[in-house]
Amino acid sequence: MTNFDSIPATARGVIHIDLGKLASNWQSLGRAVLPARCAAVVKANAYGTGVNRAIPALLKTGCQSFFVATIDEAKTARALAPESAIFVLDGLLPGSETALTDINAVPVLSSLAEIEDWSAYARKIGAHLPAAFHVDTGLNRLGMPAEDVRALAGSGTLLEKLNVYLVMSHLASADDSEDAKNASQLAVFDGLLPLLPTVATSIAASDGLMLGKSYHGQLVRPGYALYGGQASPAHAAPVEPVVTVHARVLQVRDVATGQTVGYSATYQANEPRRIATVAAGYADGVPRSASAASGETGGMVAFDGQRAPIVGRVSMDLITVDITDLANADAVTRGSWAELIGPTITLEDAGAAAGTIGYEILTSLSPRFHRIYSGEDTIRQ
pLDDT tens digits, residue range 74-132? Predict the structure, then answer.
């Protein structure tokens, strides 16, 4: 529960991040996949929650393996977790060898070219270097296709100087447990594993780990679920929401029949309406696609558990909300707090209303909003 009395008067919005729930989510997911181990994906500033606070909380609860996207993210993670395994999903950028070895990060190598460069650098410096291999099983994004895996297996030298810790892949349709592509990708992955070093395997991220034991391998890599996201409608992850977001009402006005609201006059009142202008816009993570023209539905906010629709265009700093039909409409005044994400408007609700996904909502959390962290004192290993 956010204590609004403690928020600075200058704050136009507030993001409350419960680190205790983040830690307990990791523990719950870890229990669900035993005897597999559970890592944590902390890329994109820990999915918008703040990596400088998220990693220490996860370390406190026992997490020792972290996945990031970029080398710069790996540098930050290494400073926060000096003894942990840090995996870099983007792999080896040309010329980045020294940057990776300086922080003892593990590149997730997705092509023969990357493996050749990393192996050549290992020979150059006379060392064995850590690596993970990414195998493509049908996503056709990053990853070695089957022919490259076979070529690697036939090479007599590429693996000599590499300490391979992990072989991984990524599922394309894990949020749909009925999609046959999940089993197809797992079969491709299992079929290629005998050609690769016998090490830990990983194919499941947040949704994949809910598909069952056969998808767990030795390591799972939850990201979105750690932060309370529920991307799979059929199989809810055993997690609780971590983030709530609120923004202040700046003004309340009455709009007469026929008047328009917002840029391009896309919304026109068909009867007298009461409109609250809220201090959040697309610069704060409210997608412009959440806009609603006349006769359309769009995004929502909530006041005391009651939903109110966004009407008119979402602009950079502001949204306009129709509060006419709220039972407590008179209580919504200048300075009131509108719930953007919370118990009434979930991440999935906000994403669906804007024609996107909760991942995008979460990772777009405003750097302009005041942040409150809580729950650290509840974390137990």
Answer: 999 999 999 999 999 999 999 999 999 999 999 999 999 999 999 999 999 999 999 99
pLDDT in tens, 228-247: 999 887 888 999 999 999 99
CA dist 217 and 137 (Å) reads 15
Distance, CA of 99 to CA of 129 (rounded, Å): 13
Which tokens sit at 130? 């850590």
Residue 40 scores a pLDDT above 80: yes
Between residues 296 and 302, which one has the greater pLDDT? 302
Kindly tell me if the per-residue pLDDT of 33 is higher than 80. yes
The neighbour count for residue 98, using CB atoms within 10 Å, is 10
Give the phi and the psi of residue 310 in degrees, each rounded to 5. Answer: -70, 130
- Evaluated on CA atoms 42, 47, 52, 58, the torsion sign reads negative
Sheet strands (E) in the chain = 13-18, 37-38, 40-41, 65-68, 85-88, 106-109, 129-134, 162-168, 200-202, 219-220, 243-255, 260-261, 267-268, 273-278, 300-303, 306-309, 319-322, 337-341, 370-374
Enzyme catalytic residues: 43, 263
Question: What's the chain's average pLDDT?
Answer: 95
d(CA 189, CA 191): 5
pLDDT category at 303 given cuts 50, 70, 90 is very high
Q: Are 252 and 273 in contact (CB under 8 A)?
A: no
For the chain, list the domains and their CATH numbers: 35-227 (3.20.20.10), 243-374 (2.40.37.10)
Q: Which residues pair with 281 in a beta bridge?
A: none
**What are residue 88's DSSP bridge partners?**
68, 107
Query: Which of 184, 242, 183 is closest to 376 using CA atoms?
Result: 242
DSSP 54-66: HHHHHHHHT--EE
Residue whose C-alpha is closest to residue 244's, from 372, 368, 359: 372
Burial readout 339-374 (b: 16 or more C-beta within 10 A, e: otherwise): bbbbebbbbbbbbebbeebbbbbbbbbbebbbbbbe
Alpha-carbon torsion, ordered 74, 75, 80, 83, to 10 deg: 70
Return the residue matching tokens 């896309």: 266
> Which among 257, 255, 254 is positioned nearest to 270, based on CA atoms?
257
91 and 110 in contact (C-beta within 8 Å)? Answer: yes
